[in-house]
Amino acid sequence: MFVSRLNKFSICLLVVAGSARFSAFCQSEEPKVVRYNGKVSQQIVMTRNSPIVDHATGKRITYETYDNMLKRSPGQYKTQPIFDKYGKASSFEIIKKSQLHIQPDGSVMNNPDLMPEIGEPIAPFIMRGLDGREYDSERLRGKYILLGFWVRYEKPLYTLASTKVISSFIDENKKKGIEIVSLGTTLNTEEECLEAIPKRNCGFIPVPESYGFNHRYKISETPYFILVDRKGTVRAMAPHTEFSKISDLVLR
Q1: Can you give the C-alpha Rg of the chain in angstroms?
Q2: Sheet holding 205-207, edge to edge
Q3: Which among 30, 68, 86, 212 is most buried, taking Cβ atoms within 10 Å?
Q4: Residue 9: its pLDDT value, please?
């Protein structure tokens, strides 16, 4: 759901993903899968100077045109942030409610039909890891990339059991001489990441304040994983409960 508060200078959009499905793991070596139905919210500010696109035409419109569309058809449109390759809401689009994936409670879910597809190139990204390095998908060609989409690095989703399958997959391939760049998105700040990430190998490089990538790739269930091959093409996708779809692959 996008709750807009219009004033003279800006609109505050509260992005709420409702009824999202989460796969949570206990700390036991044989993890018990539980489900959590919850909501994730982010506040994003749209100003009069923010680029706005009419979803119907794909063309950029002025703020005045946007405002008139809302006034002519009250309650018929919603404003959606568009997340760029940095995972930031750098522009917005006005779209008819009938074209959105709206839940019974009024919240707007990421449409799974718009997720990346196996065999297709991954939309480009540039992520800055907790290690201070910049990870550019274009410059990572020639290496496998494992993208992990999280909410926060905290229980019940983020545990030893939930990360062990990832680190095992990375380590086993490393022994074969196959490098996998593994990155994990989160709402956590850099300080929170430093506090939450244990000294043990969690299997990925945390990317602070990067939940925008979950929106960019239309991820509605977390933890979720996308494996990208050396050519930048999506090789496999799976929620955490089906991680074997990725870990059982023989990479070359």
Answers
A1: 19
A2: 205-207, 180-185, 144-149, 224-228, 234-239
A3: 212
A4: 43
